[in-house]
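Box 4.2: Ligand-aware structure prediction
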Amino acid sequence: MKHTKVKDLLNSTKTLHEVNAKGWVRTFRNNQFIALNDGSTINNIQCVVDFENTPEETLKRITTGAAISVTGELVESKGAGQKYEIQVSKLEILGDSDAEKFPMQPKKHSLEFLRENAHLRVRTNAFGAIMRVRSVLAHAVHTYFQEKGFVYVNTPIITGSDAEGAGEMFKVTALPFDNTPRTEDGKVNYKEDFFGKETNLTVSGQLEGETFAMALGQIYTFGPTFRAENSNTSRHLAEFWMIEPEVAFNDLDDNMDLAEDFIQYVIKYTMDKCQDDLKFLEGRLLEEEKSKPQADRSEMALLEKLNFVLENNFKRVSYTEAIDILRESTPNKKKKFNYIINEWGADLQSEHERYLVEKHFKCPVILFDYPANIKAFYMRLNEDGKTVRAMDILFPGIGEIVGGSQREERYDVLVEKMKALGIDEEELWWYLDTRRFGSAVHSGFGLGFERLVLFVTGMSNIRDVIPFPRTPQNAEF
Ligand code: 4AD
Ligand code: MG
């Protein structure tokens, strides 16, 4: 007999004579009631064991974490909390779980403890919910772009270029560490390496993505990216997933429209498909916030916050306006910021971004037209000669969730910029070709997938929204 998913059993519209379910025991009480979960839903199905006719030996093996198979009748439940339950006629232990040793006890565990057990934490309610939401969000991303006719492009993971020009890359090499081949002047001789040149893990698929946009019109990437920045924060991962759309003939305003529409779509899609999980996560967040001082608690519950993003336009503010607001702000005047904003040109720290979003505007904000010298080389220079057509989207509780720009499509201006920044033209010959042959206005952005999952799940540490986080000093599993 084929087993039926717990989700389908709970959604059944009628009682059923004989069903089979397989899953893992969450709890077993009174030697009679098993709460069984198979990951298809946050909800467990109650399985009622006929303990008088079940051998003592078997009953002892029904422990938290054990994998079991139950067969029986799906009947209306007499107990509160569920519509249906299984009256078990046959029970099989598929895999024992030593109750004393199984780390996921039916009690509250700290998030730190769960991180150390990332291979088992997914068996808890919270992590099951987070990972299902993550999966549905990923589907929403593809659905959005596919329905709009974007082409999904798989840009390379191993690259020879530094897309962001920030130099925070993991090297990829097959050279030995001892006896490393050297050139005459003592440098590592990458000509003898696997690819015959220096390579690294990609920090962004943008540059390759641009070449495809200049042929296919609208493209998007969705893949892993890597940054060797030593940022031990609740917002940074060394390996994270990024979504990067790139659109020919879009200017910065079109780019902002796309980003806003896209974010609202994927949130709405997920709210429709993950009601039980989001309701659970909302409760979890409320519970967690009880231990915080009033001032640190969020003003809105999770679903209310998500609805707020759907119903309100993102506030579009230029960098110059933002600097004026920050300069006049109370924390700046009272020197509460770690970095005091004195003049135009200052790079914004996350404390400033959070002030703008959480205290000043109280809604998602799109900052645009940043000073050229704090942004990447490929951004389009404005007529003022000092700002570029960059945009960052800032979210409450998250900070930067999107970074993007209109690209510099003018060959001469781009080359001059690269020269000024010491970026090797020969390395990027293929990128410059897009500006040589049929160049056109185009724009794109990158959305950090985990930051989106953070926002939607209401979690506060990015390590808790990716299955196996990679952070400085940590690559377990
Ligand atoms: O702002 P970033 O660096 O932009 C780019 O990489 C551009 N090439 C994107 C483009 O225009 N196609 O990164 C984009 C987003 C950030 O806004 C943030 O959400 C996320 O990627 N991000 C990270 N997420 C987790 N951990 C990190 N270390 C991240 N660094 C960036
Ligand atoms: Mg950025």
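In the box above, the bound molecule is 4AD. The chain has two domains: 6-102, 123-168+203-464.
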